């Protein structure tokens, strides 16, 4: 794996940092000069753009944005300027080339993926690199099975087309059968979807198409939006079923791109865009919001900063995405840049007896029991998070075979093993409710891990 920009690819680590610093200082000035929102935010935190002379000065300054600030900015622009892109829009609304929103699973969607034509062009190289490493390029069709509409992943469509790839963008809301009929008709070289949809289709392909998943003939599967490919059992299961490599990718604000490399073992998502975002080198403690120095294995909440974006740039945006950053060269491909593994969402974090627990981490531990469990789970909440009255309750889905055996042997042995693993890895001893295979509903877009048993 290499960096998306060839000029950056020839730079040393020091030269990359110097480039980032130069771009950052220019970008701060640009945002300050072109947006009332940024002038106001700098004043509110008591910093002048001239106070920031280095990356370290910037990492030490207070957070300028988060989801809440972004929503306030949107409400303000809707009120004062008649559009919902946000008061941090630094160009005229007429210059917007594409817009897409977050899914809105945590509230009102935000137009975080709003790009001018230069911003959009800057996505071409990373997108071409991502599919290119799997041998996908000009003339290939790609089944694009994300939620059709104004959602974040739609910003990947123009760069894919620019790479000569023909996306077959099917609406996942049409259901598994419709997705698979399109796959059978268009014979795609690769497919893009969430990992939970890739898992779900393993069972549906024989029913709908009458053949095995590997007979789709896919050469690669690209997944996004959930922890999945980072779990060894999930990666192995999907690769085995489809007979192709699974690539895990992340594209926050459509300005940074991380993608896993072509390797049996998972080495995290390689961030190939140091010239467009400081991600993932700006980390904070999710609670104190103090900067966390990035050493190999550092964990913190990722802070996003646009280095070149002109239309709707973000500066020091606390994302809520908690990641682990590895800085040692990748053991498989030798990539020397940072690699990220998703740990969870800071707003998903639970506190059980003073211990911080992420549902994504629970899912990772539970997935190791793939002989007996499907990996589908819910974390039951009896009161608003993050505080949980122990014991934490988990609903775990048992596969058909283990369910058959429950009558004779019971599930107490399995319960003890799962509890022991969760205690060893995460210091929690949950209460477990068993659910029969298929008992927990699957969402085709993003599957919620919480089951609320309280009213807001
Ligand atoms: Zn690698």
Automatic annotation (TrEMBL):
Phylogenetic classification of the source organism: Bacteria, Bacillati, Actinomycetota, Actinomycetes, Micrococcales
GO molecular function: ligase activity
Species this chain originates from: Leucobacter komagatae
Residue span, AMP-dependent ligase C-terminal domain: 354-447
InterPro entries in the cross-refs: AMP-bd_C_sf, AMP-dep_Lig_C, ANL_N_sf
Descriptive protein name: Phenylacetate-CoA ligase
Keywords, alphabetical: Ligase
């Amino acid at each position: 794996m290499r960096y998306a920009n060839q000029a950056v690819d020839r730079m040393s680590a020091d030269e990359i940092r110097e480039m980032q610093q130069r771009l950052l200082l220019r970008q701060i000035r640009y945002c300050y000069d072109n947006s009332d929102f940024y002038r106001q935010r700098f004043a509110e935190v008591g910093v002048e753009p001239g106070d920031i002379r280095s990356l370290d000065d910037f990492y030490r300054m207070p957070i300028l944005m988060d989801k809440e600030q972004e929503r306030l900015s949107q409400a303000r622009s809707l009120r004062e300027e008649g559009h919902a892109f946000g008061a941090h829009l630094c160009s005229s609304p007429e210059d917007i080339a594409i817009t897409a929103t977050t899914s809105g699973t945590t509230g009102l969607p935000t137009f975080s993926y709003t790009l001018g034509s230069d911003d959009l062009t800057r996505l071409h190289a990373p997108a071409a690199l991502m599919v290119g490493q799997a041998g996908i390029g000009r003339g290939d069709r790609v089944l694009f099975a994300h939620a059709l509409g104004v959602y974040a992943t739609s910003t990947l469509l123009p760069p894919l087309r620019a790479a000569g790839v023909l996306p077959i963008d099917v609406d996942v809301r049409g259901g598994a059968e419709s997705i698979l009929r399109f796959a059978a008709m268009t014979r795609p070289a690769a497919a893009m979807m969430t990992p939970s949809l890739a898992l779900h289709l393993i069972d549906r392909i024989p029913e709908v198409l009458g053949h095995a998943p590997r007979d789709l003939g896919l050469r690669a599967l690209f997944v996004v939006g959930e922890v999945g490919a980072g779990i060894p059992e999930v990666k192995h299961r999907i690769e085995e079923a489809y007979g192709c490599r699974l690539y895990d990718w992340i594209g926050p604000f459509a300005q940074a791109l991380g993608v896993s490399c072509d390797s049996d073992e998972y080495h995290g998502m390689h961030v190939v865009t140091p010239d467009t975002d400081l991600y993932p080198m700006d980390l904070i403690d999710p609670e104190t919001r103090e900067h966390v120095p990035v050493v190999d294995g550092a964990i913190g909440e990722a802070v996003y900063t646009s280095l070149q974006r002109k239309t709707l740039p973000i500066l020091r945006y606390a994302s809520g995405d908690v990641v682990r950053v590895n800085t040692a060269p990748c053991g498989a491909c030798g990539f020397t840049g940072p690699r990220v593994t998703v740990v969870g969402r800071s707003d998903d974090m639970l506190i059980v007896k003073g211990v911080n627990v992420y549902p994504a981490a629970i899912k990772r531990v539970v997935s190791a029991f793939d002989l007996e469990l499907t990996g589908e789970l819910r974390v039951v909440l009896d009161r608003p998070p993050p505080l949980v009255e122990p014991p934490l309750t988990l609903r775990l889905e048992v596969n058909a075979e283990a369910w058959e055996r429950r009558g004779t042997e019971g599930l107490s042995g399995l319960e003890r093993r799962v509890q022991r693993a969760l205690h060893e890895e995460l210091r929690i001893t949950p209460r477990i409710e068993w659910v029969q295979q298929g008992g927990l509903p699957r969402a085709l877009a993003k599957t919620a891990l919480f089951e609320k048993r309280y009213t807001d």
